[in-house]
From TrEMBL:
PANTHER family assigned to the protein according to its UniProt record, in alphabetical order: SORTILIN RELATED (PTHR12106), SORTILIN-RELATED RECEPTOR (PTHR12106:SF27)
UniProt KW Cell cycle keyword: no
Segments passing through the bilayer: 240-262, 283-302
GO BP: Golgi to endosome transport; Golgi to vacuole transport; protein targeting to vacuole
Any one of the GO CC terms: membrane
Signal peptide: none
Key words of the record: Glycoprotein, Membrane, Repeat, Transmembrane, Transmembrane helix
Name of the featured protein: VPS10 domain-containing protein
InterPro entries membership: Sortilin_C (IPR031777), Sortilin_N (IPR031778), VPS10-sortilin (IPR050310)
SUPFAM superfamilies: Oligoxyloglucan reducing end-specific cellobiohydrolase
Occurrences of domain Sortilin C-terminal (ranges): 67-232
Domain Sortilin N-terminal as annotated: residue spans: 1-65
Amino acid sequence: MSRDGGFTWEEVQKDAHLWEFGDSGSILIMANDEEPTDHILFSTDEGRNWREYIFGDEKMRVKEIVTVPSDTSRRFILMGYYPRSPVVHAAVHIDFSSLITKKCILDLNHPEDDDFELWSPNELRNELCLFGRQVLYHRRKRDANCVVGKLLESKENFVKNCACEDVDFECEYNYKRNASGECVPVPGTQPLASDDTCITGDYWYERTAYRKIHHSSCEGGIRLDRGLEHPCPGYKNHGAFFWFIFLVIPFAFAGLVGWYYYRKNGFARGTIRLPGGDAGRNYNYYSDSSLSATIVSIPWYLMGLASMVWEAVSSRLGSATGGMRGRNGYRTVPVDEDAQILRFEDDD
């Protein structure tokens, strides 16, 4: 019998026996598989000690021991026949439910006080990882005399993923391992083409002679399944020079175009236009919704917004410096006495 997944074994009985376990391994039963018997052997400490239970007065040839598929029950059925009538099938029901009534205790916060211990499938192996991860399971302590029940249905303790190693990879299609353990092409076959589909990540890799085992969850380490690296198409894989050309140059060009129209049409600061307009200039009053007009309107909007901000900042600075201003822009001039008289005459 083994308690560690088959790494170590110990002999519990002589001769051939049928066996079955229930309640997640807290109870084991065996029956002779070579001759008729009237008893079974059972253990509640994982095979350390065995006791005998007589199930009938007549010996029966046991052919099978069955229980629920989940192996969580403490009820068993012996299937077989009696030697006096081999063609007649017989079944014997054995119930261990009343043998132990104490419930096992699992305390994740105080594991030293409960009825379970942590066990890893690779605790006796040189490799610390199995399928790219370290996993610890709860199993009942061998000397804990209690009932597990459904307590361990979802009690799997994940520890961590391991770095990828050679054991996490297998040969790709049309490859096989040679005497040295390396994957080499199968004669008469062609390697599969590389898959450049970008499902996750920013890169795709050329196919190699290896592929990662499907159940392995290893991360990092050596990646025998990755050949040359290629960036996936998308905005994440463009450098600073690309973004400079893509963003700065178009806005700079639009600004130059806007500035050109700004100077050409006399819209610079300080230009005075009379209400009558310029007789020599042809003004067209219509709405232009073309693409060029839309592009030109962008720098107009930006410069207008900047002008508003500049005026606000200038007004605040002017008030703080006692009204001193530069030559640009309009200023408030006090009205003298002559102007006041002229204004009155105009009113008359």
